[in-house]
Amino acid sequence: MRNLTMLTDLYQMTMMNGYIQAGIPDRIAVFDLFYRKNPGNAAFAVAAGLEQVIDYIENLHFDAEDIAYLRSLNLFDEKFFDYLKNFRFTGEIYAMPEGTVVFPYEPLLRVKAPIFEAQLIETAMLNIVNHQTLIASKAARVCQAAQGDLVMEFGLRRAQGPDAGLYGARAALIAGCGSTSNVLAGKMFDVPVAGTHAHSWVMSFPDELTAFRAYADAYPDACLLLVDTYDTLGSGMPNAIRVFRELREKGHEPLGVRLDSGDLSYLSRRARRMLDEAGFPNAKICASGDLDEDVIWDLKQQGACIDTWGVGTRMITSDGCAALGGVYKMSAEIVDGKVVPKIKISENPSKVTNPGIKKVQRIYNREGMAMADLILLESEQIDPAKPLTIFHPVDTWKRQTYTDYTLRDLLVPVFVDGKCVYERPTLKQIQAYCQKEISTLWEQYRRRLNPHVYKVDLSYELYALRHKLLNQARTEMDDLPPLQ
């Protein structure tokens, strides 16, 4: 397991050193990790990356080489290095499980720890969660467009580095992809791997038919042939069908064909007819080649006869949305045993934070469909036996009252007193959980274009606290002496 302790921004280190000099490195601080806008103009995102966050936290420590490097920067004093020698995470982390459907401004993770520790872990956690949540959210949109068809993750060669390819594949599988071409991901995460052959295989033989026969001889029970190297309908499909007949005579059945270029709608319909007329109605047609949710949706609307989809570049790079934009903001401090809420104020209203130690509860109707989310203070308790009225955090006149509902806490304990208390699910379990999560959303939130905005509201107590702190800040600014 890699030690990623030094995977941080320099300003985390300078602040940590400053906390020591200010005499407050052990003051308990609370931070929220959240994002402000759903990726890809969708109505929701899919949380991912928690398992790698756990690995990172459990392995936090500074090696002698790390300390020597930091000392060479001539920025820090010896007391700082004394802290680093015995550094371990001792705090508390609550998080939304991977695969959870999530929305803007909801804490995906909540950290409560000595500020010296909480500050260090900001950058790495954002790096992990931002990337995997982004790719999982893209993959969820792709899989929804495929409408139940198998989607294969094919993005390794186009990913922005080995880690992006590896953990991007993991995130895509969380959100619904059925397999990956990434062999290392298959090994590490115990998930199905898939792949056939490239055009170079066909070009390595004297002719296409010879190439197909050689592949069928090597993989008689897993024969899926790439038919567009030269002429999809003129030679590729006829040669594939000829080889399929030869396979059947030997007691084997082919898997099907793959189309990687050209008009996939037209070619797939013609290929389907040719396979059916030749007596291979069960042979599958797989498509690949710069696919994404929009292309897949359009192909299905055009009646394309495609059974499985190999999606690479546009999913592994989250084409159209380069970053999630997750942030990590202080929301409270614990001073003399009391919670002191903190708020960040900005001229940009979207950057004003929600103060205090918070939790998130999802409101369900009796059929198990998600109705709204409520961000509230950790100390608040809601009695589901009583009516619950929520209101829009900006347009407060927009209100909704629920009388027959259930609640679920979305943040669960992961670390307590520095020890991991979270039972890690397998990737297959996370994938099943994610599909269940998405199924609880009404269709209007899953629309590909212009989805309805899901309700995420603040409790009255949190709303009041937020405005109290905003008003206090405004008063303090008014009391400042005029500039000379």
Brief rundown of the structure:
38% of the residues lie in helices and 19% in strands.
Task: Give an overview in words.
By secondary structure, the protein is an alpha/beta fold. The protein has helices at residues 10-21, 50-58, 64-72, 78-85, 115-120, 122-146, 162-174, 183-189, 199-203, 208-218, 232-249, 264-277, 293-301, 313-316, 427-439, 460-478, and strands at 28-34, 45-46, 92-95, 101-102, 109-114, 150-153, 179-180, 224-226, 256-259, 284-288, 308-311, 327-335, 338-341, 358-364, 370-377, 388-391, 399-402, 406-409, 412-416, 419-420, 456-458. Helix 2 (50-58) packs antiparallel against helix 6 (122-146). The termini are far apart.
Share in β-strands = 15-25%
- Rounded to an integer in angstroms, the radius of gyration calculated over CA atoms is 27 Å
Cα separation of the termini = 58 Å
Please give the number of β-strands: 21
Mean pLDDT: 96
Order the strands across the largest sheet as they lie in space.
13-12-1-5-3-19-20
Large-scale geometry: globular
| Coarse structural class | alpha/beta
What portion of residues is helical? 25-40%
Q: Which residue ranges are poorly predicted, with pLDDT under 50 across at least 5 consecutive positions? A: none
Largest β-sheet summary: 7 strands, antiparallel
Count of DSSP-assigned helices: 16
SSE map:
Blueprint (H helix, E strand, L loop, with lengths): L9 H12 L6 E7 L10 E2 L3 H9 L5 H9 L5 H8 L6 E4 L5 E2 L6 E6 H6 L1 H25 L3 E4 L8 H13 L4 E2 L2 H7 L9 H5 L4 H11 L5 E3 L5 H18 L6 E4 L4 H14 L6 E5 L4 H9 L6 E4 L1 H4 L10 E9 L2 E4 L16 E7 L5 E8 L10 E4 L7 E4 L3 E4 L2 E5 L2 E2 L6 H13 L16 E3 L1 H19 L6
Parallel strand pairs: 6-7, 6-11, 8-9, 9-10, 10-11, 15-21
Antiparallel strand pairs: 1-5, 1-12, 2-4, 3-5, 3-19, 12-13, 14-15, 14-18, 16-17, 19-20
Helix pairs in contact: 2-6, 6-7, 6-13, 10-11, 11-12
